[in-house]
Amino acid sequence: MKITAVDVEDVRFPTSLTADGSDAMNKDGDYSAAYVVLRTDGTDADGAPLAGYGLTFTTGRGNDIVGIAARQQAALLVGRDVEEMVADMGGVYRDLTADAQMRWLGPEKGVVHLSLSAVMNAAWDLAGRVAGKPVWRLLADMTPEQLVDVADLRYLSDALTRDEAIALLRAQEGGKAERIAELERTGYPCYTTSAGWLGYSDEKLRRLCQEAVDEGYQHIKLKVGADLEEDVRRCGIARDVIGPDRALMIDANQVWDVDQAIEWTNALARFDLLWIEEPTSPDDVLGHAAIRRGVAPVGVATGEHGHNRVMFKQFMQAGAMDYCQLDAGRLASLNEIVAVLLLAAKFGVKVCPHGGGVGLCEMVQHISMLDFVAVSGSREGRVTEYVDHLHEHFTDPCVVREAAYVLPSRPGYSTQMHEASVAEFRFPDGAYWAGRLASA
Amino acid sequence: MKITAVDVEDVRFPTSLTADGSDAMNKDGDYSAAYVVLRTDGTDADGAPLAGYGLTFTTGRGNDIVGIAARQQAALLVGRDVEEMVADMGGVYRDLTADAQMRWLGPEKGVVHLSLSAVMNAAWDLAGRVAGKPVWRLLADMTPEQLVDVADLRYLSDALTRDEAIALLRAQEGGKAERIAELERTGYPCYTTSAGWLGYSDEKLRRLCQEAVDEGYQHIKLKVGADLEEDVRRCGIARDVIGPDRALMIDANQVWDVDQAIEWTNALARFDLLWIEEPTSPDDVLGHAAIRRGVAPVGVATGEHGHNRVMFKQFMQAGAMDYCQLDAGRLASLNEIVAVLLLAAKFGVKVCPHGGGVGLCEMVQHISMLDFVAVSGSREGRVTEYVDHLHEHFTDPCVVREAAYVLPSRPGYSTQMHEASVAEFRFPDGAYWAGRLASA
């Protein structure tokens, strides 16, 4: 079986019309996916054509640029033998990252890393389908040596050696079956950000917080950072609705300088905050470390813009994060994510992946399950983001029940979109956009 | 006078044919420029059409991707009044960086930051031409307040406040005229990397080192990192030719992990090295700090892949660099570079910008001159990179005399290419590439 072709689609959903997803830094995004399909000449167990489906998330314009980069990178996979590829995913990843000319455009960051993520996410989805397993299970079933071979440990050896990584995984082997059974019973806890976007009215905020409580959520997150007085009012509303026992988190989406982040967070600390998320530039390791010292006992959460494993290594070495919010479309797929999970396990940092956007929830459920089953062995104090929109476009959408992700069971990475969704929202020629552009 | 149009060209020079530019990480690059021309409806003093010319440097494939991003960003400038724009370059920069959707693709890193650099470099070239001044002089003639308004100080206030920046500049105001006169007499010292590429034979290395000595260079830099025995032999040859009094630097182009960097550098330290350049991942602030402690008295130089001012802030806060090798096409133009010069002046780090590539030497001469005249006020211990190739494609190429850059005197940023060069090397339809692709 060979990879015969690559399709890359620019899919954009018009979320800017409803202010879903608005925050202090991002005001008018159309949630979008650079969507990669690796076609093969094989078929699945049902005789349907076998393909791998992957994506990265962007907020609209520029999604085309990521797609062009993905097309150039994915071209290296066409003609490859699928069985050989899925048996050596670490090697495939290294081949794609070894391209010196694309590397110059990062290295390992920005557009070429987002696009690499989309391509490798599709390769992982294909690997899961070939194995007949959900991706979390494909990885959890690996031996410690196999899983470490998948992980990109380059530049990490001063913090985590290969031997240490294997030892960490070996220590969790015994309890795997029990933890899988536990996930089958109770899923993986999540929290909702759907209540707290900046563009919503107080009334809508109150209503959405109450709905979240009614649905069983133990954590609520609000966007902050545009206006302190408004933030005080909105945090007050949220705390009032959720009561004293549930957790309240705030998210500033990078709007502050370091000292301002400390002052603003401390001004809201009376609402008993679990964490402040993205208080400043996502590149500022030392700044986050200073903020963490300055706002304790409020925790520091960051990572959705953490552009590669070297940044996460430093955040952990510097004591700059309590909660690691890695992003499944910004890190270059599970090859890099497994490395970050291993670092987090070593440093005792809680992994609470970034959800939302398009398809991120579909992917992060696999990551959190894998972390619990095979890497950290713990759900204690961890909670994975969930945002309730755009799931209807996926063929195997994530399912949340009683404020927990249900363990994915279908083969792959849950990242296949309905063909009808792609046809409608492909930019600029899908039915939705063609109609809107014609009437503009 | 208005900006009427933007042209973006994908210009690639076939440097991979001669192994110019080969190093341990980058083996087959074609030195390229994403080249931006901002057209206006005005004319210069000679009655010729007035335009601004800017670029960023890449190593080949992917240059098209940067060009597409530049086209989207530069579109925001079309229709703008030129006089208003050049009077508020800080505002123009903020407008272009405020685009939330392009920001998501970085933020402030990778393709969208490289492309922003090309666009703003063209805007700065235009500003210099409008003022009838070389860009270094345009900036050096500003008041401290004006220059600080140009600088992007966002996320830096924990290390450098606006007031501190103004005070730093004010302290250098008195000596400006004298330092300009000094630059007119002796230029700005540079070193050559042309001798030490990995692809060259020992014989060629020896000959090129001798030529550099004969031309008056006091510093020679070699690429290292592929093979320790070979590095020992090549450093031995270089030290033998240049004698004990000239400086020898080595450049590993990011190939090592942290501990390996310390061991390898110390294994070469007997050749009396001034600096080790890019020993590991350019993102690894804490790793560089560890390396700096581990290889002293060999200095640590890095920055050509330093993707924004927040990274440089941390390198300086952490004591991770002795020499700041900022890149004129990777930082988002002089708006961000002035901020880094200010940080370096505060922390006492020596700015030795990254030269080479396409057009980088043309730009960095302006930066080093500006740093000496208006910011740090010193050339002590500083030396700017010079690589002797591809200058023939520029209408106002940098001039090096007695191992020093000659002070640029013509208006603009020295980044205009000959139209014939663009016509020949435009990819894929320029005469050179069309011919090569036809005969392939």
Largest interface: A-B, 61 and 61 residues
**Based on the structure given, which CATH architecture of the domain at 172-419 in chain A is correct?**
Alpha-Beta Barrel
In CATH terms, the superfamily of the domain at 172-419 in chain A is Enolase-like C-terminal domain
Helix and strand composition category of chain A: alpha/beta
Shape of chain A: globular
Tell me the β content of chain A.
15-25%
Number of β-strand runs of chain A = 12
Compute the separation of the termini of chain A in Å.
46 Å
Alpha-carbon Rg of chain A, integer: 21 Å
Q: Level of helix content of chain A?
A: 40-55%
CATH fold description of the domain at 172-419 in chain A: TIM Barrel
pLDDT < 50 stretches of chain A = none
Oligomeric state of the chains in view: homodimer
Provide mean pLDDT of chain A, rounded: 95
Enzyme class (chains A, B): lyase
Keywords (chains A, B): Lyase, Magnesium, Metal-binding
EC number (chains A, B): 4.2.1.68
InterPro entries (chains A, B): Enolase-like_C_sf, Enolase-like_N, Enolase_C-like, L-fuconate_dehydratase, Mandel_Rmase/mucon_lact_enz_CS, Mandelate_racemase_C, Mandelate_racemase_N_dom, RHMD-like
Overview of this protein structure:
- Chains A, B: Residues 202-298 form the Mandelate racemase/muconate lactonizing enzyme C-terminal domain.
- Chains A, B: Pfam families: MR_MLE_C, MR_MLE_N.
- Chains A, B: It catalyses: L-fuconate = 2-dehydro-3-deoxy-L-fuconate + H2O.
- Two copies of one chain form a homodimer.
- By secondary structure, chain A is α/β, with parallel strands linked by helices.
- Chain A has a domain at 172-419: TIM Barrel, CATH 3.20.20.
- Helix content of chain A is 44%, strand content 16%.
- Chain A has 18 helices and twelve strands.
- In chain A, strands 4, 5, 6, 7, 8, 9, 10, 11 and 12 form a nine-stranded mixed beta sheet that branches.
- In chain A, helix 12 links the parallel strand 6 (247-251) and strand 7 (273-277).
- In chain A, helix 10 packs parallel to helix 11 (228-242), helix 12 (258-268) packs parallel to helix 13 (285-295) and helix 14 packs parallel to helix 15 (334-347).
- Chain A is globular.
- Chain A starts with a strand and ends with a helix.
- The relative contact order of chain A is 0.14.
- The mean pLDDT of chain A is 95.
- At the A-B interface, helix 1, helix 4, helix 5, helix 12 and helix 13 of A face helix 1, helix 4, helix 5, helix 12 and helix 13 of B.
